[in-house]
Fold these 3 entries.
Entry 1:
Amino acid sequence: MEFAAVLKTGPVVIPIVVFTGKSYGAWRDWFFAATKPTMSSGKSFIDWVAFLTFQLPVYGLTLWAIGTDVTDIATLFASTALLMLIIDRAIGLFLQVMRSLAGAGVKINASIATKSQQNCL
């Protein structure tokens, strides 16, 4: 993806990320509640899968909507998936802390949400 295209996507992607943030938090909470990972590696994997199945398609549709070539989108998907495998757990922990500080935890139901929030950390 050329630098000009990156500059073109920023103003489009940022509002979409803000708009989908709460939905992504709910999606991530649901994944943790449904899978109940106990080991750190399992939690990292769930963070990665939640990102790949929610944020990556949103990103891809956004790129497609602004006219990015499908080949470039596929390349970006592969590189983003690899990068997120490495850094997604740290991002997930950061998001969880920020949501907790803001009182913005998503409630699936009382027992699952409490367990889910504990499982995420």
Entry 2:
Amino acid sequence: MFAETVEFLGRSEGGLDDFRRLGGRLLIALDGTEYHCSKSIHCRHCSRRLRGAGKGKRGETEYFHAMLAASLVAPGHDKVIPLEPEFIVPQDGADKQDCENAAAKRWLAAHGRRYAELGAVFRCRRSPSTSRPARWHSSWR
């Protein structure tokens, strides 16, 4: 559905061209967000965190669902085009919980080449390969 929408906009007059900036490039922003959080309602797909623990306090477990949201954006444009999400979920056999960084790597591996062919550059809040703040990435490997 997401790819078909972008393809349709690419064929439409104005469509994607209204979103082009920086010498004709498309800007894709990637950022994590939570869409469920509860101290009691949870499932096997929930991530979890301990809140309020320390200094003799036991703390409470919070269960949550999160995703990496990808959006085609353009400075000065009042609309965005949502793209395929990448869900942040506990990974089978992993010792550590999934995170926004790992989800960004999966998203780029699954969708990056297709959007790069449209002249896209990608922006993550943090670079998927480091913990440094990211810049716009225009090359695709």
Entry 3:
Amino acid sequence: MDYLVPFKKKPTLFALVGVNLLCAPLALRAEPLEVRLSATQEYSDNVTKTKEKKDDTLTKVGINLGQTLSKGVYSSSLSADFGFEHYWGDTFGDEVTTEATYSGKYNFSPALSWSLKDELTETVLNSSTPTTPDSRVRKNVLTTGPSYRVAMTSEDDLVLGANYKQIDFDSNTAVDSKRQTATADYIHRFASALTFTWSNSGEWAKLDNDTDLETLESEVRFSKQYNDLTTSLAVGFTKLKSERANVTNESEDVTGSFNANYQATAALGLFYSYKRTLTDSASETVFQVFERPISFGSSDSVLLQEHVAGANYSPNARDTFQLSGVSSTEDNEGAGFEDKEHSLSVSWSHKINSKWSWFASSEYTNKEVGARNADEDSYDHTLRLNHKWFKNFSSRYYAEYEVKDSSDGVNEFDALTVGVGVDYVPNF
């Protein structure tokens, strides 16, 4: 993965850039282009994140671009990060890194619109694998389709939609897919800030491993807004059918979610969420629930469950504390194993004065990897100091210490990383 566009199916990134260029004349009359330049020098005593430590020094330079446009019936936004990495000890080859998101919407009428979104990111396919240039792969997700809203009454809406989604990976071990989705949502608004939504959807997918998938979902959701509390409760049912080599497999399960956000005081906010989702393990949903899935790449049905709870506390204008806990389960029904992940993280950001600030965080993660019948424990501690020299020029100094232990000795390592970086925002 040495250069910019390594996809087996390349056009998606070019389409993203092309659409933005076509919109550039309009964008010039909208919000100005935001540009951030950065340079970082970093040293790690274990750059490969393995038991056999190898140290190296990394130099990174990057540019971040961002622009939003809202002109009449058309709106769009573009965010892109481009970087170049060089390891002075040649542990890894020189590499161009790319992450970009384009989102556009055209309103043909108040009821009918068409949306386009393209996301190019870098990720890992297995969370048990340390994140290094050799383990990162590029993922591109292109989604486009129309939406039509029928205002039945002042309290009732019917929203119809259709989407085409294409997921491509720069990896032979991941499964690319093309997916067509149809949706129908009925929405009723009660007088007491209560909203009822009945959602129905069907998705038909074609995977690169010659698998055909059909996913049918129906869900009812209630959302309620109180003075300091926002809640939603959803219960649904999902059926998943896969066909490959004349073999048909079917799965079905109850799904749902619950969300609550409570502003206890002006300084303290509390939140909790629960998700229960049935999907195939090659879907984008796996990455939405498990940012780094424990396992990925087949067409097996997967039941995902996730609990997230935490608090944000800002006792004054200088300090912000955050506490978060996550408990996730990935039940791979076809493979016959279950993976679990539990994590706890805490952070503290402090503004010393108008020039200096610092940030500290610690995270503990436990994974139960069913495929290996192993337990993994990870610790990640970070300390960062920021200095604002001028209005548009700042520097950062940081240190990170990572430790990973495993009951079967796989992927164990410890690594200390220190670095310094500068950021410049030019004025146009």
